[in-house]
Write a structure and sequence with these properties.
The structure holds two protein chains of two kinds.
Chain A (H helix, E strand, L loop, with lengths): L16 H4 L10 H15 L9 H22 L1 H11 L14 H19 L3 H29 L2 H27 L1
Helix pairs in contact in A: 2-3, 3-4, 4-7, 5-6, 5-7, 6-7
Chain B lengths: L20 E6 L3 E8 L2 E4 L9 E2 L1 E5 L2 E5 L1 H5 L8 E3 L9 H6 L8 E2 L7 E4 L2 E3 L1 H20 L5 E6 L5 H13 L4 E6 H8 L7 E9 L4 E9 L2 E10 L4 H15 L8 H17 L5 E7 L5 E7 H26 L8 E5 L6 H11 L12 H13 L9 E5 L4 E5 L3 E6 L4 E2 L1 E7 L9 E7 L9 E8 L12 E7 L5 E7 L5 E5 L8 H14 L4 H31 L2 H19 L3 H14 L1 H25 L1
Parallel strand pairs in B: 1-11, 11-12, 13-18, 15-19
Antiparallel strand pairs in B: 1-2, 2-3, 2-4, 5-6, 5-7, 8-9, 9-10, 13-14, 14-15, 16-17, 19-22, 20-21, 20-24, 23-26, 24-25, 26-27, 27-28
Helix pairs in contact in B: 3-4, 5-10, 6-7, 6-8, 8-9, 12-13, 12-14, 13-14
Classes of the chains: A mainly alpha, B alpha+beta.
């Protein structure tokens, strides 16, 4: 039966998620191109394509497409991609262990959250939520652009800054999600 | 085990040999089997011309069970031995069944097993065995109609089915002697039937209101690739519930308060269903209730009354519909087409409500009862290898999050809901006590944070961890979900390499040994010979391996193998060929395993090269035009 003992023994097909998609290991990823590559790989290597193939080929197809799915989920989102890329460069973003953040950023977050709480109760909540969402989006995009630059610098201080940016972007993603929930 | 047509020894196995494959819609109320014949997919009727096989099994003492209409005819007179809607019980534990209590008129045996067994005149029967009877009847119908042994079947399941329910369905197929090519989500099959895979792109909603289950799926289509963006549903809501609502109303109208006995309940339900169906065209229908004292109540059921009775149930379908849209990040207006599936969508009120919700008329041109089986048949044809040039690919997602128990009775999610499958995720855990040498891995499915609110799928132990201080061990737990949505879990201590692996078998499901026993029983029952059957299965498997490896060698043997490697594979193939001619089942099995072993590196190189070729194609594309 397929899959019984196959977990754990992973095919050594992709060295890392970028290479699996034939992409250079950089933060800059064209999501449309990534998606096209993803679909092509799935179309060619999905287990359905190997329904009558030999057992080793079926097992490989399962492992490969599972990896391709994981890689796609990682690379299509800028925050997850950045965290993965930092991981490849030996930097742990450490969300679970390290909760220290830049004080100014934290103040800003607290203020955003207060505005969100107020907007929730306000009569013109839709207008307020919309403008909050815009502000969060802008903050996010600004950091995304900075992140790109930091990754290009390829130095130890740049990586430290990138790490902070990723952590901040995660906060922003969370609040953007909460705004969406209310909208 | 693959069951392929066997060609005469010496004759070449032509790559385009047509294999008989079917699609099966194993429904709560009715089941169907369909196949592609002369490029047209359609459901297969029985000798009497009926396409729908009622999913009803009647058990008798000392005789074969009756399946379908013959069983349904006996439902009112012998309700305890006539099992209907068994799909509701697939993969469910005794506790779940208690919750469904009043909907099920059966008596359950109270054995030690956590799996419910229904008491019948022919002995206790599990839901898997009952489903296997239905599948066996469809297999027989297909083989009679198509004139040969089936090479495989695609069986559909509600998109919302959890791991236990999928596993139970696969077990039932195995028991019925079917080779499952793939478990396919019902809504995905419906989309295929409507040829939506031929459209350029778009987002579609599949609204499936069957007899016992409701599913809503949001599918996105792009260049022939289906992705299920989101699924939601209610595995205990459907036309049966409408019948119950109508039956209750009739019962009250007849001035009766006490509970109906089982026989009367079956009759009431049958009449309620008939009235509901008649109201698709009529505005009012006469109904009557035979009271226990022999008097008769007569009255009329108007469509407006029906609407009042069923509206709350139809409303209940819109809650998961909203949730699925939200999960997909879409609004009702973003949906390009709405496909209607399931007999209950024939109700004008259902179509009206759905049209109001999405703001567009739903697709209803294919018979909503047949649409799923037809889609499954189309995919079965592709998977059996009858369409080597087909570009069709169906990408599905996990319906529920999968995770494991951590400290404090909490669940740590490893694979989130709606992850595209196949998928693999790993996470590291550690020990919590000094000198801890074993770790209990408790696998759970569900969205809630507390273990007690999720469904327990399996428990297994990783033993032999060398004693270390708490937190020093690094235990990597890997979850893998295959294309059928079935989970395997592996745990490995990173420092020492101690490993443990399970293919998840729900605690209340059937063990492999139980299935083997049932298979033996059913084969003995069909006066077939077990060992002959095993040998034939093994020979068929050997043929499949020989064919696959020889095809691969012809294509790439020169490219990826040096002389020694080629010689090793050739030797393994020759050994298999010799074993195949003989009658030693074990020897064939071992020879197959040896070929698998010998071709591992070859398979890896071929796959690796194909990946590189696929990606190279991408770079070249940019310069083509």
């Amino acid at each position: 039966m397929t899959g019984q003992a196959s977990v754990g023994v992973q095919a050594d097909l992709g060295k890392n998620y970028f290479e699996l998609f034939g992409l250079p290991v950089t933060f800059d990823v064209d999501v449309a191109d990534l998606t096209a590559r993803y679909r092509d790989l799935q179309r060619r290597f999905h287990p359905d394509r190997f329904a009558s193939a030999s057992e080793p080929e079926r097992r490989l197809s399962l492992q490969l497409t599972a990896q391709v799915n994981a890689a796609f989920q990682t690379l299509k989102d800028p925050v997850v991609r950045a965290r993965y890329l930092l991981g490849l460069q030996g930097v742990d973003t450490g969300e679970d262990t390290d909760t220290s953040m830049d004080t100014a950023f934290l103040m800003e977050q607290m203020e955003l959250r207060e505005s969100l709480a107020e907007a929730r109760e306000a009569a013109d909540r839709h207008v307020r939520l919309e403008s909050l969402r815009q502000r969060v989006d802008e903050e996010f995009e600004a950091r995304s652009a900075q992140l790109r630059t930091r990754f290009m610098e390829n130095s130890e201080p740049a990586r430290r800054q990138a790490r902070n940016l990723v952590r901040e972007m995660q906060f922003l993603q969370k609040i953007a999600h909460e705004i969406e929930e209310l909208e | 085990m693959a069951l392929l047509q066997i060609s005469e020894p010496g004759q070449s196995t032509a790559p385009h040999e047509h294999r008989l494959a079917v699609g099966i819609d194993l429904g709560t109320t009715n089941s169907l089997v369909a196949s592609v014949r002369s490029s047209i997919a359609d459901t297969l009727p029985d000798e009497a011309g009926r396409h729908l096989l009622p999913s009803v099994v009647h058990y008798r003492r000392g005789a074969d069970p009756l399946v379908g209409d013959a069983a349904l005819d006996l439902a009112a007179d012998d309700p305890l031995n006539t099992i209907a809607s068994v799909k509701r019980l697939m993969g469910r534990g005794v506790e779940d069944v208690k919750r469904l209590g009043n909907l099920l008129p059966y008596e359950f045996s109270t054995g030690a097993s956590a799996m419910p067994r229904i008491k019948t005149a022919a002995g206790d029967r599990s839901p898997v065995e009952v489903s296997a009877e239905i599948l066996r009847a469809l297999k027989h119908r297909a083989e009679t109609t198509l004139g040969g042994e089936l090479s495989g079947a695609v069986i559909t399941v509600p998109a919302y089915f959890d791991d236990a329910q999928r596993q139970a369905t696969k077990d039932a197929a195995r028991l019925a002697g079917l080779n499952v090519l793939r478990l396919l989500n019902e809504p995905t099959a419906a989309a295929v039937a409507y040829g939506l895979d031929q459209s350029a792109e778009g987002v579609f909603a599949i609204y499936d209101l069957g007899g016992g289950t409701f599913d809503i799926s949001i599918l996105r289509l792009n260049r022939g690739v289906f992705e299920v963006l989101a699924t939601a549903g209610d595995s205990a809501l459907g036309g049966d519930d409408m019948d119950h609502a109508i039956a209750d109303w009739m019962w009250q109208q007849a001035g009766l308060n006490e509970h109906a006995d089982r026989k009367l309940q079956r009759r009431l339900l049958r009449d309620a269903r008939a009235a509901k169906q008649a109201l698709t065209d009529a505005l009012t229908v006469p109904v009557q209730v035979l009271r226990p004292d022999g008097t008769v109540w007569q009255g009329d059921l108007a469509r407006s009354t029906l609407v009042q009775l069923v509206d709350p149930l139809i409303e209940r379908t819109l809650t998961p519909t909203r949730r699925a849209l939200k999960d997909a990040g879409l609004k009702p207006k973003d949906i390009q087409e709405v496909v209607m599936v399931g007999g209950s969508t024939r109700m004008p009120r259902v179509q009206e409500k759905v049209e109001n919700f999405f703001g567009r008329k739903p697709l209803t041109t294919i018979d909503p009862d047949k649409v799923v089986a037809i889609g499954a048949a189309i995919q079965a044809d592709v998977l059996a290898g009858n369409k080597p040039d087909s570009d069709m690919l169906l990408l599905d997602v996990t319906p529920l999050s999968l995770g494991l128990e951590i400290m404090g009775g909490m669940v740590e999610k490893i694979i989130p809901r709606n992850s595209t499958i196949p998928t693999v995720r790993a996470q590291e855990f550690t020990t919590f006590k000094d000198g801890q040498t074993a770790l209990l891995i408790h696998v759970l499915q569900g969205e809630r944070e507390l273990v007690s609110d999720c469904r327990s799928l399996a428990r297994f132990e990783l033993r032999g961890i060398p004693p270390m201080v708490a937190g020093a061990a690094r235990i990597r737990v890997t979850f893998q979900v295959d294309a059928d949505g079935l989970l395997s879990v592996a745990a490995r201590e990173q420092g020492t390499g101690v490993e443990a692996t399970v293919t998840v078998k729900p605690s209340y499901g059937l063990t492999d040994a139980e299935i083997e026993n049932m298979l033996r029983d059913s084969i003995a029952h069909a006066s077939d010979d077990n060992s002959v059957r095993n040998l034939r299965e093994q020979q068929v498997d050997a043929d499949r391996v020989l064919e696959a490896v020889q095809a691969a060698l012809r294509a790439d043997g020169e490219k990826y193998l040096d002389r020694d490697e080629r010689a090793a594979i050739d030797a393994a193939l020759a050994a298999l060929h010799n074993a195949r001619i003989g009658t030693d089942t074990t020897a064939i099995k071992q020879a197959v395993a040896a070929v698998d072993q010998a071709t591992q590196a070859f398979a890896m190189r071929r796959m690796d090269a194909s990946v590189r070729a696929a990606l190279a194609g991408h770079r070249l594309d940019e310069f083509k035009s």
